[in-house]
Design brief:
mainly beta; 13-stranded antiparallel beta sheet; two-stranded antiparallel ribbon; about 45% strand
Length: about 260
């Protein structure tokens, strides 16, 4: 019987014997998302360091609050505390698993709330190298995936994936993501612009674990290869399960957040 079984297996198409690269890529993305589900809500402090092509730096101090949604993407509220010219600026983002995200910016100098159009999500956020779309939670449903293989990155065994945004207004044709095999944490993302040229690279470092399960990077470094500019985000003072509710993330919260 063994020769007959081998003959049958040999006659089957490859897809019947192994997952396709698309199936494997989606499987890895789903597992990474599963491992970061259930934190409920969080607060953190963030230092944003902007660096221009000449090496000049400016620093912004920011607070970020996040609320996990059971049936949709996360909600987040970003508040600028320093310097004085951006103090009181608030950014509210509702990420959706499908369709365009909802995002608003409150500018205290104008005392008005500005809605960010879905067509403008590829624009820079507050002069940084992060686009508005980079600030949304990276929901699995927002991309299609392809497994590109295993690689060693910074001494870690990683999966390398390609993901293509579903949003037709995205500023990216595709992204390549390196996810470590041990904890399924993103380690590096390379962004390709609408001409399919390398635009930016985002690297994560200094991961710390919270609540015995959830990993957060202490630093995120975004380098723009086309402009020579960069933005470094330094995270601290993480708190989880602080009792935040939807009311803390409605549009009125943009004006009352302090």
């Amino acid at each position: 019987m063994k020769p007959l079984l081998l003959l049958i297996l040999a006659s089957l198409p490859l897809c019947a014997l192994a997952k396709s690269d698309q199936e494997r890529g989606l499987e890895i993305a789903i597992e990474a998302d599963r491992r970061d589900t259930g934190f409920q809500d969080s607060r953190a402090a963030m230092k944003m360091i902007l660096r221009n092509r000449q090496g000049d730096e400016s620093i912004r101090l920011i607070r970020v609050r996040t609320l996990e949604q059971e049936d949709d993407g996360d909600k987040s509220l970003t508040t600028f505390d320093q310097p004085a010219d951006v103090k009181g600026t608030n950014f509210l983002s509702f990420t959706h698993k499908s369709g365009p995200d909802d995002q608003w910016l409150y500018l205290p100098a104008l005392k008005r709330v500005k809605r960010i159009s879905s067509r403008n999500k590829s624009g820079p956020f507050m002069g940084s190298e992060f686009a508005y779309e980079d600030l949304s939670s990276q929901e699995v449903e927002k991309y299609t995936y392809r497994y590109l293989g295993d690689e060693v990155y910074e001494g870690m065994e990683t999966y390398r994936l390609e993901r293509i945004p579903e949003d037709k207004y995205s500023g990216y044709t595709r992204q390549e993501v390196w996810i470590d095999k041990a904890e399924y944490r993103p380690q590096k993302v390379v962004f390709y612009d609408r001409k399919n040229s390398i635009l930016k690279t985002l690297t994560y470092s200094g991961y710390q674990q919270y609540l015995g399960k959830y990993w957060r990077a202490s630093e995120m470094f975004m380098e723009n290869h086309q402009t020579g500019k960069s933005t470094r985000l330094v995270w601290s003072d993480y708190e989880f399960q602080t009792g935040q509710t939807d009311r803390d993330f409605d549009r009125n919260s943009l004006k009352r957040a302090r």
